[in-house]
């Protein structure tokens, strides 16, 4: 499977790093990315082209990435989601990008510029985008799947995987209840908490991350709350599966490349970002990770079937109902408390 191949390549890169033979110049670049979120062959291509050794590390949530940075993690390129970009900017934890060194930024679709999380585009470059929804096994469901409600139905006890991510799982509950996924109402958060706690009693969901893809294909669940790109990876391997964005609405996310404040190799980081924005590189990468690309030329290079795939490139109706997460500021403490109380049940 792709994940196994990725792990083998990652281990190979780590061995190369330890051996100190990835670069003749002695220059290094520390990259911190989501798990299984880049074609690792492109890392080798970058090393060969620039003579810069890449030390590559992975995380599973925005919050774990943030915690690593706060603890003094030494990275040059990171891949935060929209709301985390806003948080990092507010805490002066990102470097401004010198776009003279990133000429391929011109290929980013204007729809992804001037965002609420980085209005002037000084600190982040869109990498991929997608939606949050439900991946499900069509052979095990005899009803229409179009609502978050199916995740709370007791007849599917022991058949639901929830994503082990605070903002995403709470968003499911808030959306189902008809509230904004960026709610700052303690009463609405309390209702969302009670719904998720009741789900644990009625449905007994399992909270998973990337491993959920292999587990659902192995028959360990019927439903998996996940991101569209993860869902597409499963659908590409197994035709039993489909993916929907529930009618109540969902999250539309944009993951970005950014440079942490105080990065020791800022110019190399900008070289790397520009490299990832080369049209052929962006195309190769998006074909591997199977998310949605904000890169206009890479999109045009994809085959027609992919360009018209509604899992990756949903209708305006779906997008119009979706929200982008915002930085909650100090209200994040309420979400953290709710999440702890849900997970401790």
TrEMBL record:
BP term (GO), one: polyamine transport
Name under which the protein is recorded: Spermidine/putrescine ABC transporter substrate-binding protein
Signal listed as a keyword: yes
Binding site for spermidine: 83
Record Pfam families: SBP_bac_8 (PF13416)
Organism placement in taxonomy: Bacteria, Bacillati, Bacillota, Clostridia, Eubacteriales
Subcellular location: Periplasm
Chief location bin: periplasm
InterPro entries from the UniProt entry: SBP, Sperm_putr-bd
Protein keywords: Periplasm, Signal, Transport
GO molecular function ontology, one term from the record: polyamine binding
Xref: CDD domains: PBP2_PotD_PotF_like
Gene Ontology terms: cellular component: periplasmic space
Region forming the signal peptide: 1-19
PROSITE patterns per UniProt: PROKAR_LIPOPROTEIN
């Amino acid at each position: 499977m792709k994940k196994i191949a990725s792990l083998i390549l990652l281990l190979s890169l780590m061995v190369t790093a330890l051996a100190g033979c990835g670069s003749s110049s002695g220059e290094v670049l520390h990259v911190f990315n989501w798990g299984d979120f880049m074609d690792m062959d492109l890392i080798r291509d970058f090393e060969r082209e620039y003579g810069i050794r890449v030390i590559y590390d992975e995380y599973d949530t925005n919050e774990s990435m943030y915690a690593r940075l706060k603890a003094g993690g030494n990275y040059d390129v990171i891949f935060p989601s929209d709301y985390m970009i806003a948080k990092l900017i507010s805490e002066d934890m990102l470097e401004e990008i010198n776009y003279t060194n990133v000429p391929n930024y011109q290929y980013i679709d204007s729809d992804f510029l001037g965002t609420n999380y980085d209005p002037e585009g000084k600190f982040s470059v869109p990498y991929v985008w997608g939606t949050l929804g439900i991946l499900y096994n069509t052979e095990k469901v005899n009803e229409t799947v179009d609502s978050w409600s199916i995740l709370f139905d007791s007849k599917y006890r022991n058949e639901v995987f929830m994503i082990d991510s605070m903002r995403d799982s709470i968003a499911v509950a808030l959306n189902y209840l008809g509230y904004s996924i960026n709610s700052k109402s303690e009463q609405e958060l309390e209702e969302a908490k009670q719904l998720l706690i009741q789900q644990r009693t009625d449905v007994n969901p399992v909270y998973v991350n990337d491993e959920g893809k292999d587990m659902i294909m192995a028959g360990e669940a019927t439903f998996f709350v996940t991101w569209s790109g993860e869902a597409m990876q499963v659908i590409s391997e197994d035709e039993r599966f489909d993916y929907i964005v529930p009618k109540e609405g969902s999250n539309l996310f944009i993951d970005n490349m950014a440079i942490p404040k105080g990065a020791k190799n800022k110019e190399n980081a900008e070289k790397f970002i520009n490299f990832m924005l080369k049209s052929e590189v962006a195309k190769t990468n998006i074909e591997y990770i199977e998310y949605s690309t904000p890169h206009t030329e890479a999109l045009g290079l994809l085959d027609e079937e992919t360009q018209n795939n509604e899992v990756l490139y949903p209708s305006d109706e779906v997008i119009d109902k979706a929200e982008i997460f915002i930085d909650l500021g100090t209200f994040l403490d309420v979400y953290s408390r709710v999440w702890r109380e849900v997970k401790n049940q």
